[in-house]
From TrEMBL:
It comes from the Eukaryota. CDD domains: RNase_H_like. Residues 56-162 form the RNase H type-1 domain. InterPro entries: RNase_H-like_dom_plant (IPR044730), RNase_H-like_EbsB-rel (IPR052929), RNaseH-like_sf (IPR012337), RNaseH_domain (IPR002156), RNaseH_sf (IPR036397). This is RNase H type-1 domain-containing protein. It holds the Pfam family RVT_3. GO terms for molecular function: nucleic acid binding; RNA-DNA hybrid ribonuclease activity. It comes from Pyrus ussuriensis x Pyrus communis. Gene3D superfamilies: Ribonuclease H-like superfamily/Ribonuclease H.
Amino acid sequence: MRRIWKCCNDMVFKGVSANPMEMINIEAINGGVVFGGTTCFAGQQVRWKRPAFGEGYGWVLRDFAGLLQAAGGEGGLIFNNPMMVEVAAVRAALQVCLELGCIEVGVESDSQTVIRMANREYVIDATLECFFHDIRFLASQLGRVTFACVKRHGNAAAHAIALYVTSHGGAFR
């Protein structure tokens, strides 16, 4: 559906005309591109290539006063979508909180959709169910866990760690 929506927007706003059925067929072939070959998407030649370092995430653990207690992340991973990266970071942070014996934990993320899924305001996406199962299990082992959404600049330290581990690969804590 996203491809058809993008096709319509390209036609209306950019004047690029593409056949919607072509978009559906391309979507069916590995998410829009043919591995190892070239294909035409929205009038452009596209060749798939492996991302240089993959993706990664970072997390930061602060105390009640906002002082840094721990930080970590993992890079060189491949995820299906950005929400999966956010949820993996939440799970990793909760695992560390459990190891450190934290009692009250406040999880902050700049992904409003992930936070609403964690708070059971939205139905959990099927691709994220296993992550949320782990998160709920970890949260049940801790005393009190709250989930809150913050603006992107409020998550700058975690983004800096994610940038580092994505460019260098590996995991650290």
